[in-house]
Amino acid sequence: GQQVQQSPASLVLQEGENAELQCNFSTSLNSMQWFYQRPGGSLVSLFYNPSGTKHSGRLTSTTVIKERRSSLHISSSQTTDSGTYLCALEGSGGSNYKLTFGKGTLLTVTP
Amino acid sequence: GGIITQTPKFLIGQEGQKLTLKCQQNFNHDTMYWYRQDSGKGLRLIYYSITENDLQKGDLSEGYDASREKKSSFSLTVTSAQKNEMAVFLCASSIKGNTLYFGAGTRLSVL
Lengths: 111, 111
Fold this sequence. Notes:
Chain A is mainly β. Helix content of chain A is about 0%, strand content about 60%. In chain B, strands 2, 4, 5, 6, 9, 10 and 11 form a seven-stranded mixed beta sheet that branches. Chain B has a four-stranded antiparallel beta sheet with strand order 1-3-8-7, with no helix packed on it.
């Protein structure tokens, strides 16, 4: 089946530092999405990024299909960035509509 | 914009009980999903539906039933609650090939 591996599992930063979160997948994809989840909260979409690079404020998502990876870069981190970041893959072929999620990266940004 | 409403927010059940979770969306999206989130295991797909009256099993469908009687609503039934079970059930909707939108979740505890 589809495998989605996220790294690191957890990350602690000081405010102002940058973060690079990785998502590796073992199958060809139709789409890759990144989500943010505050503790006890629901998931909020950050990026829908099947390929290439997209920017949103301090966030950048890059998906390289040939290398089967996607990354999320957070620049100048803030304490409000703390939470869990999840990537989700929609595979190509017979698995349309189904997203497979990674286990997430728990980010803690300290003052 | 639209919203996904999940009810109830909290659900406490007894072992062996049948429990029903409800989800409503006003995005007019065709596809709806039920995911289960357990600590340390990420999100796992239980059921999804690509249109009214359609049902597709996910990776975790055993022990669950689902119903999509209207385009706007998708319900999930736990057929027999397991003792000490604790999880968050997340409903989501999307247009195929596009971003997923999530509800706030139903938190289940089984005594």
